[in-house]
Design brief:
9 strands, mainly beta, 141 residues
Length: 141
């Protein structure tokens, strides 16, 4: 079996039994951003240090992606015919920031604003050389 690789480098710790998203915390003003970036979005200074973000948070809002996004940038292994709708939401991570994320659940009846969610690493697609890719998502706790 081929080794699973992250969809993009620097998004989360991997491989790991307890993966975490990689964000940045500003050493000047304390602002936290995801994904990591060199300059702070709040104060503009190049004072960001990479930090692992909390694995759990609360669902801030959500919707269901009903159609296959255009490719590129979408790199899923599905096609227009095989696309399956999926949930998308913002997760509010304590003492950190809100993260836009795929959800492991797409049925709105199984989701509610304020619901506790946990980070999960899920299969996503395949690279041009056949390696399976994974991405992050959040699942209800």
């Amino acid at each position: 079996m081929s080794k699973q690789i992250p969809l993009a480098p620097g998004l989360f710790t991997w491989p790991s039994d307890e993966p975490a998203l990689l964000g940045g915390r500003c050493g000047s003003c304390g602002y936290v951003a995801f994904p990591f970036r060199e300059h702070c979005l709040a104060c503009g200074l190049p004072e960001m240090a990479e930090v692992e973000l909390p694995r759990r948070g609360r669902l801030w809002t959500f919707t269901t992606q009903q159609f296959r996004p255009p490719a590129p940038p979408y790199a899923g292994a599905d096609t227009v015919e095989s696309f399956v709708p999926y949930g998308v939401g913002y997760i509010e991570l304590p003492q950190a920031c809100k993260v836009e994320s795929r959800l492991t659940v797409s049925d709105p009846a199984q989701l509610s604003i304020g619901q506790e969610m946990e980070l999960a690493i899920v299969p996503f697609g395949v690279t041009s050389d056949g390696q399976p890719t994974v991405t992050f998502a959040f699942r209800p706790v």
